[in-house]
Amino acid sequence: MSPLLSILRKERGTWAATLHDPVPQPLIKVRMAHLRGVQAALTSSALERLVGVELSVLIEASRGAQTGYLEGYSDTDVRCFVDAPNSLHNRLVRVCVTKALGDHVLAYPITA
User: Fold this and answer.
1) Under 8 Å between Cβ of 57 and 107
2) Is residue 52 left, alpha or beta, with left meaning phi > 0 and alpha meaning psi from -120 to 50?
3) CA dist 90 to 24, 72, 108, Å?
4) Residue 87 Cα to chain centre, angstroms
């Protein structure tokens, strides 16, 4: 949890616990939905800039039945779906990002 969120938790001993007039639950939901939208746009923009970039990815998951791709994470914590042979499962591979899709990227291995 981020330091900012930890001070805003309304628990005994936190700064938030001393505040009066708590924010109504419906307003909290509206604000959180807005923040999720802003975060999604920032993530999408950051991932778009990775198209054409090479990353080191640890392939952690076997080929997904729904996606058809191996799945892993880069050393910068980018979620990658990789079109690669199953033999690369549990290996660190260099990949080239081909497309950004929401909260992850598609990539292919540079060396297999």
Assistant:
1) yes
2) left
3) 47, 9, 16
4) 25
**What pLDDT digit, counting tens, does each position of 44-63 carry?**
999 999 999 999 999 998 88
Q: What is the CATH number of domain 22-112?
A: 2.40.50.140
Query: Which pair of tokens denotes residue 42?
Result: 């920032």
DSSP string over 26-59: HHHHHHHHHHHHHHHHHHHHHHHTTTT-EEEEEE
Amino acid at 28: I
CA distance 101 to 92: 22
The pLDDT tens digits for 78-93 are 999 999 998 999 999 9
